[in-house]
Amino acid sequence: MPSRILNGLWKLTWVEAKIFAREPMGLVGTLFMPVVVFVLLGRAFAPAKLVGPPHPPGASASALEGLPFNLAILSALVIAINAAQSLIAIMSIYREGGILKRLRATPLSPVTILGAHVVLKLAFTTISLTLLVLAGRRLFPGVIQVNVLSFGAAVLLGTLSILSLGFVLASLVPTPRFAQLIGAAAFYPMLALSGLFFPFDRLPLAFRTIAFVLPTTHAVALLQGVWDSSGWMAHWVNAAMLLALFGAYSALSTKVFRWE
Amino acid sequence: MPTPVVRVDNIRKVYGRTVAVSDVSFEVQQGEIFGLIGPNGAGKTTTMECVEGLRSPDGGAIAVFGLDPVRDVYRLQDRIGVQLQEAQLQKRIKVWEAIDLWASLYSRPVDGTRLLEQLGLVEKRNAWFMTLSGGQKQRLFIALALINDPELVFLDELTTGLDPQARRAIWDLVRGIRQRGKTVFMTTHLMEEAERLCDRVAILEHGRLIEVGTPEELVRKHCPERSVVFTSDDADIAARLRAMPAVLEATSEGAMHTIRGQGDDFVTDVINAVAREGIRVRGFRTEIPTLEDVFLKLTGHRVRD
After folding, report:
1. Does residue B170 share a domain with residue B31?
2. Do B88 and A97 touch (CB under 8 A)?
3. N or C: which terminal CB in chain B sees fewer CB atoms within 10 Å?
4. ipTM metric
């Protein structure tokens, strides 16, 4: 009964959203931390931009030139990785507490139980990204000339792909105590390999091969493309790879995901 | 003979090299409280979860209402209610939210508010799960198991970790479920619980089923002996009663005299003999064997709590 499934997904997502909102630390961390990092780093590295004249329209908007990397893209990735970290933590807590098992012994389908968290994470990513854009517009006027909707869509696609990898990682986490550790150990090296800090071509071949199957790499490439206004068409390979990796990691997690 | 609600036929479940359940067969009849009893690790939960359709047995067959619990899971979901051992809910989910979510998943849910009233949880409806006491959590899990008005309810180690008062309250609720015509399939490692609650029990030990029957039947069959203990200053009471036909043993320890015998009439016979002999007694009690003794007799060890 599709209506019952949709109803279950909606109810569960809404309940999970309320539960998440009742944990102030998690809520603040998820929604505001990336914005705070963005603002602090931006102020520390590019103070001139705060008082300088706005960018002339149409000029290269590689943003905050005081920094050796694109801070907006880094912040967007931090949002996505935060979402995945939080997902891994929730899955391990739910597994250890028998919550996943209890939910599974209802008519809810496994996809619905996990899908509710994906929907929720994407929703929070959207909110966090909106805050980021608002902060950017206010603090670095004229710098952010990117098409916000296009950028947002790229962030959501990247987040979706990173979340699917999160489900695979969640099955490797033995207890909630390891969730943060394993998440950090997996995602921060990914960030280093993503091409955000060093040009992708300068990485050794082995690293480039690994980086190719990581969602972060393609997310960075796509976001950089959107930022530079070269657009989705020029980076369709990255967009396709994000979708393909989402499919592959989702398929893998149906095999390895542990419910108890 | 009516069709059983649950029929388990020679099921087997193996985890790696460990045989969790081996050659287990039993039936659960309509309207009874059936208990799977035995120590922790005996295979009770594994067996129950196979019947619930949460696990697939490696061998044998299971029918619930004539359906296969794994293959026909969607047809069975509306007819069964499940409480899992040591399950939790989200720490910050409110009681009414859990009830509301569960109710939305079934085609003909009962009234959640009435259910909370029946289980004494109405004043807790806005409380977070993490703030509930052990007994309240278990009552909520019973509520969730009953939300779809199921014909068959599974209760796995329902009272483990509860204090005696909460335990007794839960027992009354379980009896109430049976009174409403439902069938209850439960597990417990507490022999007292099984004896007080279950119409029939199956004893499981090391993954094998070693006995099935009503608690009284099993006691009568395996532990027919009973003892009468007197406190009396009459020093030769043991010697005087030893001559009775049903007496197996009569011993004295100071003013305490124990007469051991067997048969349903044994206690009556002893009382009559005491009256006849004109023995003066200051204290009198009987020691009737329990399921715990049956378990000890059958396995050679006690069920540890």
Report:
1. yes
2. yes
3. N
4. 0.84
